[in-house]
Amino acid sequence: MKAAFLTAPRRIEIGNLPEPRIDGARDVLVRIEAVGVCGSDMHYYLTGRIGSAVVNYPFILGHECAGTVLQVGAEVRRLHAGQRVAIDPLIACGRCDQCQARRRHTCRNQLFLGQPGQLSGALAEYVVLPEDCCHPVPATMTAEQAAMIEPLSIGVYAQRLSRMEPGAKIAILGSGPIGLGVLLACRTAAQCTVYVTDLIDERLRMATKLGSAWAGNPNKADVVKAILDAEPLGVDLVFECAGKQETIEQGVEMLKPGGLLLIVGIPEVDEIRFPIHTLRRNELTIINVRRQNDCMTSAIELVASGMVNVDPLMTHHFALEQTGKAFDLVAGYRDGVIKAMIHPATRRLH
């Protein structure tokens, strides 16, 4: 089968490798039809690492994916050949203290698609995964929509962790696919007023289209002042979705006393500073959001019901052979890209 290999920073080559086979009785063979390019993929593409996770070249990236079941193991009961599935890229052990505490996303023995040192990714024509990772979607849901379920589930999880109350005042700092997913999740969960920032005007326009009350570019305006002018007491919640020192500082500054900062973005650096006296005096709470936890089904229901429309986020489509072009586009934030979608098992182009 064909796969896209990261062979060096900023270099992707198409190669061949043997098709995977089902080894376990509860394994499923999936033809991969859509893979979204994630911000974490960009870290590996540009720098070869995220913290202690370092790429050993060549390596296959990709974890936001969906496809069609081709074959199932002898003990698989929920799935059958021909069924379309959204994929949870995390394989949890089910035995450790974290799994027993219903925290599969922090499993001590986890394996994750496209994670160096754990599993090869989904930028290939076929993947074998445990049945538990494969979530059936309605026949009306496209492969592209199904591939958006995992990133949307992160937004759903972040919203749940926030314990947002109706009427909440919210800031989302960074309106890439994850930030926009947080916006969609919050807007469907309860009535709220949302302020959004980003460095890319096309993404700000998308945030406004999806229901933000205000959207601003920190390169063009003092976004903290603008938000505090609108909310003099400060906002209740800040979802930091950019992974940047400056957005974390902005978030702390615009929170009201007793407010909550949720760090969703992945920083490129190993250490981040916090203005400790502001945190202390205002008794601010910080929550780190680690991927998602048991939110795939909820995200599927939001999309299947029509409550959330993920189609506008998918701005660019590429064949597997064009993976390098897709990654370069996302790395350069060019052409108004929000989510680039790669189609390993098809040759669909936009």
Give your account of this protein's structure.
The protein has 350 residues and is α/β, with parallel strands linked by helices. It has two domains: 2-148 and 310-343, Medium-chain alcohol dehydrogenases, catalytic domain (Quinone Oxidoreductase, Chain A, domain 1, Alpha-Beta Complex), CATH 3.90.180; 152-288, NAD(P)-binding Rossmann-like Domain (Rossmann fold, 3-Layer(aba) Sandwich). The protein has helices spanning 39-47, 97-100, 143-147, 149-162, 177-189, 201-209, 223-230, 245-254, 276-281, 296-305, 323-331; strands spanning 2-8, 11-16, 27-36, 49-50, 53-54, 64-72, 84-87, 90-91, 111-112, 126-130, 134-136, 168-173, 192-197, 214-216, 235-240, 255-263, 285-288, 314-319, 339-343. Strands 3, 6, 7, 10, 11, 18 and 19 form a seven-stranded mixed sheet that branches. Strands 14-13-12-15-16-17 form a six-stranded parallel sheet, sandwiched between helices. Helix 4 (149-162) packs across helix 5 (177-189), helix 4 (149-162) packs across helix 10 (296-305) and helix 7 runs parallel beside helix 8 (245-254). The longest helix has 14 residues, at 149-162.
